[in-house]
Amino acid sequence: MKFRVSAVQYHLHTIQSFDDFAQQSEHYIRTAEEFEANFVLFPEFFTTQLMSIGDDQGKALSINDLPDFTDRYLELFIRLAKQYDMHIIGGTHVIRRAGKLYNVAHLFYPDGRVAEQAKIHITPSEVTGWNMGAGEGLEVFETEYGTIAMLTCYDIEFPEIVRMAKAKGADVIFCPSCTDDRHGFHRVRYTSHARAIENQVYVVLTGTVGSLPTVDLMRANFGQAAIITPNDIPFPPKGLLAEGELNHDMIITADLDLDLLYQVREKGSVTTWRDRRTDLYPDWE
């Protein structure tokens, strides 16, 4: 089975209203539609742009204000997924549950359904700066194009959680990310390649670009989208189907062929999934 994915290098800048956010989001989705994409991925924390709208005194909103936009965020992306007949991974949005904040990836189906995956591993800055809570479970999601998982930024740096996603049947890992410097960016990028090789899966990765000068922890962004494959003969030698230009406002698109994954798992140059030594270390299958 083949299908097409797009990944958005979302340009963060100060906006004046929710409508500004909605128009920018729809612009990327319309672009993905022009490329006939079946999935479009937005980055982690891209809805923090809403904090730049500010309050009545012109002061930027805080992270505790961001969940107040949840209903409008959900309504917007449910409508867009239906209107453009597309699966949208709406980056991540901060929600509040039982008085605690969680960083949650959302999958919007074309039929109006919404699935969620809370970020499982929380960085020190998210804990100290925003008091963010950690998700407690991993889910995979069935779509008409196969089984996917959504693992956010820091999550991809932990081999065990991606191994669990593969054991649950995921062939594609969508990884919305947000990094503020080269070090963080390359941690996520390099480990995305490692996870694709270890588990013989696709990883679709993207990040925020631009800046929000008035929003704490979002003043700097360093990002680049990439559509990553295992490193084997049916795929490009560098394991890259597509990548964006660093820190540019843009969208990238490529076709994923699941049959190639199944082929290399059976008789590739290496068969890393099949050859794992479960007699020596735990497995999640």
Can you characterise this structure?
The chain is α/β, with parallel strands linked by helices and 285 residues long. It has one domain (2-267): Carbon-nitrogen hydrolase (Nitrilase/N-carbamoyl-D-aminoacid amidohydrolase, 4-Layer Sandwich), CATH 3.60.110.10. Helix content is 27%, strand content 27%. The protein is built from 6 helices and 15 strands. The chain has helices at 18-34, 70-84, 124-130, 159-167, 182-199, 258-267; strands at 2-9, 11-12, 39-41, 87-97, 100-108, 114-118, 132-133, 141-143, 146-150, 172-177, 202-207, 209-210, 226-228, 240-243, 250-257. Strands 1, 3, 4, 5, 6, 7 and 15 form a 7-stranded mixed β-sheet that branches. Strands 8-9-10-11-13-14 form a 6-stranded mixed β-sheet, with helices on one face. Strand 10 (172-177), helix 5 (182-199) and strand 11 form a beta-alpha-beta unit. Helix 1 (18-34) runs parallel beside helix 2 (70-84) and helix 4 (159-167) runs parallel beside helix 5 (182-199). The longest helix has 18 residues, at 182-199. It is globular and about 65 Å long. The two termini are 24 Å apart. The mean pLDDT is 96.
